[in-house]
TrEMBL record:
Protein name: Cytochrome b561 domain-containing protein
GO molecular function, one term: metal ion binding
Membrane topology note: Multi-pass membrane protein
Organism: Coprinopsis marcescibilis (Agaric fungus)
Obligatory cofactor(s): heme b
Domain Cytochrome b561 residue range list: 89-224
PANTHER family linked: CYTOCHROME B561 DOMAIN-CONTAINING PROTEIN (PTHR15422:SF45), OS05G0565100 PROTEIN (PTHR15422)
Region annotation (Disordered) ranges: 1-47
Database matches in InterPro entries: CYB561D1/2 (IPR045150), Cyt_b561/ferric_Rdtase_TM (IPR006593)
Record keyword Transmembrane present: yes
Transmembrane segments: 55-75, 87-107, 127-145, 157-184, 204-227, 233-253
């Protein structure tokens, strides 16, 4: 049982770090909205939810869920113990992709006009991405690396492996940029407005990295020797080509370009 002097939970720590700047923006937004109302001008939040957001979010989550589900079924029904450490690689990588997709979807529709919703979305985003997806993909990457080492097999001999290595290095930088610009009031990058100015680069980087990760999954799921031997081609086409495209299209359909003000 926690006493009166217990440390705050991770969720509360993240929420405190993220809500303060966002709620500060709320008061400024209220003043601006009041000024507009005084002039009897209509307000329009171009960053707010659109009618297609819910459908696009469902399509993205359902599609990546099927990618992960098919992968798990075929790994677990093809004598996974005989696959050694390799079995953990597709299981954990597709699980991580599903979690990353949710982490993106849960944050996308929030806007400055909804500071509390935005803060809550950012908390969910960080818990899912940093607490679940990132560790899963690191362990999955280590599993395939370790499996190759056990067999004295060379690394990066395929496009799947090459792009996979690139994605992992990029993802580490993405995590450092995102967390460093928010946690502890962004002190890692100078704090305040200086740290917040990096958010748009974090968003843009993520929207480039995410399709690259799905393309890497496509290379492994559609063209690897194990997949070609174990999964019918029509199912590989649907699961590792068509569904990833649907995920990307759905995610991009929810993008708010106004959140990335490059000027």
């Amino acid at each position: 049982m926690a006493g009166g002097g217990a440390e705050p939970s991770l969720t509360h720590q993240i929420q405190r770090e993220t809500e303060e700047p966002l709620l500060a923006e709320e008061s400024q937004g209220d003043r601006e909205q009041g000024a507009i109302t005084d002039l009897d001008m209509p307000t329009l939040d171009k960053d707010g939810p659109r009618r297609t957001d819910n459908l696009a979010g469902i399509v993205a989550l359902a599609s990546i869920g099927l990618v992960a589900g098919v992968t798990w079924v075929f790994i677990l029904t093809h004598n996974p113990t005989s696959l050694g450490w390799f079995a953990f690689h597709p299981l954990l990588q597709t699980l991580s992709l599903a979690l990353l997709t949710y982490g993106i979807v849960t944050l996308q529709p929030t806007s400055q006009s909804q500071p509390k919703d935005k803060a809550a979305g950012l908390v969910r985003h960080q818990i899912v991405v940093l607490g679940l997806a990132f560790p899963a993909i690191l362990v999955g990457t280590w599993a395939i690396w370790h499996n190759k080492n056990l067999r004295n097999a060379p690394h990066y001999t395929s496009w799947h492996g090459t792009f996979g290595g690139l994605c992992i290095m990029w993802l580490i930088g993405q995590v450092l940029l995102g967390a460093g610009s928010v946690w502890f009031k962004g002190k890692l990058f100078g704090g305040g407005a200086k740290a917040k100015s990096l958010w748009k680069y974090h968003r843009l980087s993520g929207y480039v990295l995410f399709p690259l990760m799905l393309f890497t999954a496509h290379l492994g799921g559609a063209w690897s020797l194990w997949a070609e031997k174990s999964i019918p081609w029509i199912l590989r086409l649907l699961t590792f080509t068509i569904l990833p495209v649907l995920v990307v299209v759905s995610i991009y359909g929810r993008v708010r370009s106004s959140k990335m003000r490059f000027r």
